[in-house]
Amino acid sequence: MLTINGLYAGYGKVEVLHGISLEVPKGKVVTLIGSNGAGKTTTMRAICGMIKPKSGDVQLNGKNVAGLDSHRIARAGLAHSPEGRRVFSTMSVRDNLTLGAFPRFTGARPKGDIKADLEKSLELFPRLKERQDQLAGTLSGGEQQMLAMARALMMNPDVILLDEPSMGLAPILVEEVFRIILRLKAEGITMLLVEQFAAAALNVADYGYVMENGRISLHGAADKLKNDPAVNEAYLGGANKH
Amino acid sequence: MDIFLQLTFSGIALGMIYAVIAFGYQLTFATSGTLNFGQGEALMLGALVGLSLAGNVMGGPYINYWLMIPLVMLFGALHGVVVERIGVQPSVKTKNEFGWIMSTIALAIIFKNVAENIWGKDDITFPSPVSTAPFEIFGARVQIMQVIVVVGALAIMLAVEMFNRKSIYGKAVVATANDSDAAGLMGINTAQVVTFSYALSSATAAFAGVLVAPLTLTGSTMGTALGLKAFAVAIIGGLTSGVGAIVGGLILGIAETLTGYYISTGYKEVPGLLLLLLVLAIKPSGLFGKTTIKKV
Ligand SMILES: Nc1ncnc2c1ncn2[C@@H]1O[C@H](COP(=O)(O)OP(=O)(O)O)[C@@H](O)[C@H]1O
Ligand SMILES: [Mg+2]
To answer: Does residue A117 sit in the same domain as residue A91?
Structure first.
């Protein structure tokens, strides 16, 4: 589904990613963990076209999309719930969700039933349903996070990138977010998940990659990584909780 | 009293023209953070092209005033695309923060020179599409064309607002104005949105040109002062607020006609520009300008 090969990218002259390779097979949830500043967000930005990779392949459905503009990569089937949420703050929750389906309106992606999908995503995120006519800028941080996820789903993407969906959320909301991720997984949605809660991420994921200083240092099946002493020490706080 | 009311009505008509041009500045500023300093020349070209189609110059009139309006707006849209492609895109692509300022001013001067060569340096009368005989409201004499200017100005701004709110393409424009990177992630071609907003901006200016032309004289020099004063309106009202453009336009327009009559025509522009200086000193985001709220 999504295959990254030898990806180099950075900001200006500073190289942050030094040859990343990873794979997100169809219907699987893959997680990318690593400490702050390891380059997880940069990896996602280079995949979705927010920044242009210096070299390397980004294969989406067998097509190399590396270097394309972000709107082209989106239309090719990649949705991204970015770091910082980036909701359209002067627009209503409903309009934000509608915009998630933009390529479906214009015929760049199969149309399907946009109305039904909008109602479905409001069911999936009841907090958004209550606030559907409110401006996105007036939502709490947690609600904005859910809106960013729901908006990304509205594209009916082939792959969805979630960059720290639990960032800054109250514990009860973090649980809700992970419950939703599990539900999406059960529906067969292909996901690349970046998370600070490495243990929880490895619990929902099929496969995991560990990132250090712009390189993949370790990868393997999620339950293998969970029990790996090094991973345990560095990212799971020593004790194998959750 | 009658004369005061009459001056106020004239001020409102003039102010609504300022408002439409200011609105045009806002359209491109919202999506791209840039604007066309030749907005007044877009208005001037619109008026002169309209004159050539519907006036008795160049062997015309070819069509009547009302049918001419959509054609002039189409011309305005093409003009906007040219300005964006030549004047704005290169400096945005090379991340040259201020290049577009000089390029759009340079283009404005070129357009003015071209207009001088095609239509001459003298002002030409634009035939009025409606009776020029004034009617009376509360003892003040008002021209039908002045009413048309006010209605037309409000209509074009309302139409753009409705497009932005209701249609998916309008929503894409608003999304781009909100957060261009995030809009790209939605599959929105934000570069195209910016080009579109330049087209729309120039089209509204061209529309303002054919609205105001029957009330003033038409010629290659008509746009520069209008464009500059509308820029002041955009700053006074706030570069992000449609309501601000209207209120700012009315303040400037009315202040101008009243000062022109009661004090001296030589000073008619002073009150509005003093207000501009005041706003810049006290509330630089404009009377209606929003300071964006960001949640962490
Ligand atoms: N917009 C940016 N401009 C310059 N450097 C950046 C930018 N964003 C991130 N970086 C740098 O890139 C490195 C990786 O950051 P990031 O990808 O955000 O890490 P992570 O998401 O794993 O915490 C860090 O050293 C960070 O300082
Ligand atoms: Mg990050």
So the answer is: yes
Q: Distance, CA B247 to ligand 1 centroid (Å)?
A: 44
Q: Which residues, by Cβ under 5 Å, contact ligand 2, an ion?
A: A 41, 83
Closest-CA residue of B relative to A107 is B187
Residue B196 included in any domain? yes
Q: How many CB atoms lie within 10 A of CB A137?
A: 16
- Cα distance between residue A109 and residue A153, in whole Å: 13
pLDDT tens by residue, B68-101: 999 999 999 999 999 999 999 998 888 788 899 9
User: 0.90 exceeded by the pTM?
Assistant: yes
A86: closest CA of chain B, how far (Å): 6
Domain limits for position A113:
83-156
What's the number of domains chain B is made of?
1
Strand partners, A161: A80, A192
- Is the pLDDT confidence value at A240 over 50? no
Residues of B in Cβ contact (< 8 Å) with A151: 186
A34 lines ligand 1 (CB under 6 A): yes
For A56: left if phi > 0, alpha if psi spans -120 to 50, otherwise beta; the answer is left
What is the pLDDT confidence band of residue B291, given thresholds at 50, 70 and 90? Answer: low
- Please give, rounded to a whole number of angstroms, the shortest distance from the CA of B295 to a CA of chain A: 7
ipTM, 2 decimals? 0.93
Spatial separation of the C-alpha atoms in residues A4 and A22, rounded to whole Å: 5
Which of B168, B186, B194, B240 should we substitute to test contact with A (largest number of A Cβ atoms within 10 Å)? B186
Q: Which residue of B has its CA nearest to A89?
A: B178
With beta carbons under 8 A apart, name residues in chain B contacting A168. 296
Cβ proximity of A112 and A104 under 8 Å: yes
- Angle at alpha carbon of residue A45, lines to A42 and A49, rounded to 5°: 145
* Alpha-carbon gap, residue A168 to B227, rounded angstroms: 47
Q: Which residues in chain B are contacts of A86 at CB distance < 8 A?
A: 179, 181-182, 185
Is the C-beta atom of A11 inside 6 A of ligand 1? yes
In terms of Cβ atoms closer than 10 Å to its own Cβ (0-12, 13-18, 19+), residue A168 is: middle
Looking at residue A202, which CATH number applies to its domain? 3.40.50.300
B154 is in which domain, residue-wise? Answer: 2-222
Asked if residue B113 belongs to a domain, the reply is: yes
Q: Tens of pLDDT along B233-290? A: 999 988 888 889 999 999 999 999 999 999 988 888 888 888 889 988 988 888 887 7
B187/B190 Cα distance (integer angstroms)? 9
Select the residue of A90, A98, A102 nearest B187 (Cβ to Cβ): A102
Quick check: B187 and A80 CB within 8 A?
A: no
Count of helices and strands (H, E) across chain A: 11, 10
pLDDT of amino acid B285: 85
CB B187 to CB A95 under 8 A?
no
